Amino acid sequence: MSIIALPTPQKLTYLTVEEAILLRRSIREFKRDPIKLTHISMILWAAYGITDPARGFRASPSAGATYPLELYLAIGEQGVHVLEDKYLESGVYKYIPSVHGLSEARRGDVRRSLMRAALNQKWIEDAPVSIVITAIYERTTRHYGERGRIRYVPIDVGHVGQNIYLMSTALGYGTVAIGAFRDSEVASIVGLKSDEVPIYIMPIGVPERVVTTSFNDLKLHIDRARQNLGIQF
Ligand SMILES: Cc1cc2nc3c(=O)[nH]c(=O)nc-3n(C[C@H](O)[C@H](O)[C@H](O)COP(=O)(O)O)c2cc1C
Where do the H-state alpha helices sit in the chain? Predict the structure, then answer.
């Protein structure tokens, strides 16, 4: 199998967790800039990469460690910058956590088709890349039956989505979790087998505007709200 090896995970950011949580917003306007290979590598790792090599546990929790999700990276034309004038080929790639690599699923820029499948949400076409999170329910329902389908798999996806949001924020990118799309169209664009269902599309790029909320802004807001209710502080 031909695999593109991603740069191995490393400490890269200086934002604290509380700062990343404060600054996380759903971003729908992106600059044309590409994402760096080292950065998309960190975002994929934060989403579903290996964090406990001995047991194969991942960056996001999963019910019974069943790991029902797969992550695909849809890369646009010059969407991922490797170095100097080198970019990854546009196409759809599957993330392989065990080797922290990408396996090519199909060639070509699918951003416009993905956007159409997602009811013309244009931020999918504007962003240099999107992560498509899919679920193979059977991996979890085999152990937990219906509870696995209606509870555990959707909860697992939420954890992964939040890690993508926070890692993107910490690296200076923005993203938005998209749940509104036609499943069968997304499945055919990504090339999914019949047992695999798309759950989220998360376009990632450099935000057009930076988020400027501060802890001081929050304090002013909370103090005012308390004052209005006559709460002593
Ligand atoms: C399950 C789910 C589905 C969502 N689907 C979409 C979507 O299809 N398109 C979109 O622009 N935002 C979508 N969002 C993002 C929400 O609109 C956003 O989280 C909300 O407005 C709060 O803003 P914030 O994320 O900046 O805090 C979705 C969020 C969740 C959790």
Answer: 17-23, 37-48, 111-117, 123-126, 138-147, 153-170, 183-190, 215-228
